[in-house]
Design goal:
Number of strands of chain A: 10
Oligomer: homotrimer
Helix content of chain A: 10-25%
Strand content of chain A: 35-45%
Order of helices and strands of chain A: EEEEHEEHHEEEE
Structural class of chain A: alpha+beta
Largest interface: A-B, 37 and 39 residues
Largest sheet of chain A: 7 strands, antiparallel
Shape of chain A: elongated
Low-confidence stretches of chain A: 1-9, 19-23
Mean pLDDT of chain A: 88
């Protein structure tokens, strides 16, 4: 479902190597302990084909790796209101098909249901579908990797019928 | 929809200016590099008029500016279970009206639908509406500003019929 | 609803005690100002009895206390796609019963409704229920405690019929 995915240059990359005092060692010797607190933020663009779920886990993991952060949190934020984020099953494609079918039932595309239709009949249900899913997902980072469960992937959920370019901000903070 | 909005004094404001070593410069000179890691937390109260969406983006942006943080993450947290947060379209008011109409259909105020009615018939649907929207929204900070998309605003969604005073905790962390 | 809850050893616990310069005092004296930035991450396992809400607030609060962090943010992340997180009312049990009844209506267990049924008829509705609730909850930390409102608790929401062991990552970051 990802057709092209252009990764822009890192927006910000801060490191603070901090001399945190000395650690006592057996025998009376000591050596300085250094921790590095890091802040890393990138913006990426994802081209969607129209309605559907696009797995962005690998792209986000690449940013986590670029950050050099071993332990921290990764925030993925989508700058749109008719596309959203969700963490769901990465294995059976039937799960994603059922998600689409179900959300069409809950927040249907129905020309008579909504007042707002300036941008077409698929726009307002897109806002509703984004409302009950996520604008940001926050995932811990453990040993340099997103701490996703075995069956989890981070999806960008396009709710509009036509292809769109969607912007995500990925922010990683930790040590 | 915001009638009054009292901002309490900053609860906490930490700065750590850290000498992170020296940066080599052409010609052999070097100068010290200093990064400042900051933690800033405020509590604000928002008075609502009863059911509806209140745009709190400007208040949150003011707190981000007060923090002095250029790159980081801002967490907005609501301390209630019958009011919630959502990031949605900031332009057409018809979007907000459709959101209200739709959520009334999905989690209706119906005296026969729920066991829990101690606090009135609008309370339990309020809990359900909060359940499928957000208790916290996490927004990256870029160049000292919330990295919201052009059409995004952060809304406090009051689900009770009567006016309430709602407390938000805004926490900003970064450099 | 919690039957056993095994807490594993802390995965990571970083401290950076930072000499942040000296603070001027009246009379011309000064003393060094030290801030400590901390990162603390633990993994916990929660045994569920099958469908229902398990209050995990106390376990998460214990981890916040173990971190020694006074001001920061706590991220709770669930590594599953048919169980989820939600912050809701901690008082009336009728609220939780109404939540279960309502979500069964919105995303019903119905053998004819879904294509995906490899893992039984309760699996796909579980994915849908997780989709509209949360995979992570982010709660500010204030004065060493989760900044939950008076009536708020953090719940693990098991959506499968049978008992499961669910893994949460709790990450606390701050000063």
């Amino acid at each position: 479902m990802v057709h092209k995915c252009r990764q822009e240059p890192s927006l910000v990359d801060h490191e603070m190597s901090v001399l945190t005092g000395s650690e006592p060692r057996r025998g009376g010797a000591s050596f300085p302990r250094v921790s590095t607190f890091k802040v890393h933020q990138e913006r990426i663009e994802i081209a969607t084909r129209g309605r559907g779920l696009t797995d962005v886990s690998r792209k986000v993991q690449e940013i986590v790796e670029a950050s050099g952060i071993a332990t921290g949190v990764c925030t993925v934020f989508i700058q749109h209101t008719s596309a959203s984020l969700v963490i769901q099953e990465n294995a059976a494609p039937s799960v994603r098909r059922d998600m689409e079918t179900w959300i069409e039932r809950i927040a249907p595309e129905d020309p008579n249901a909504y007042e707002h239709d300036d941008e077409g009949p698929d726009d307002m249900p897109g806002h509703l579908r984004a409302t009950i899913t996520k604008t940001s997902e926050v995932v811990p980072v453990t040993k340099g990797r997103l701490a996703l469960g075995t069956w989890q992937a981070i999806y960008l959920w396009e709710h509009r019928r036509t292809p769109h370019t969607r912007t995500l901000i990925v922010h990683v903070q930790g040590v």
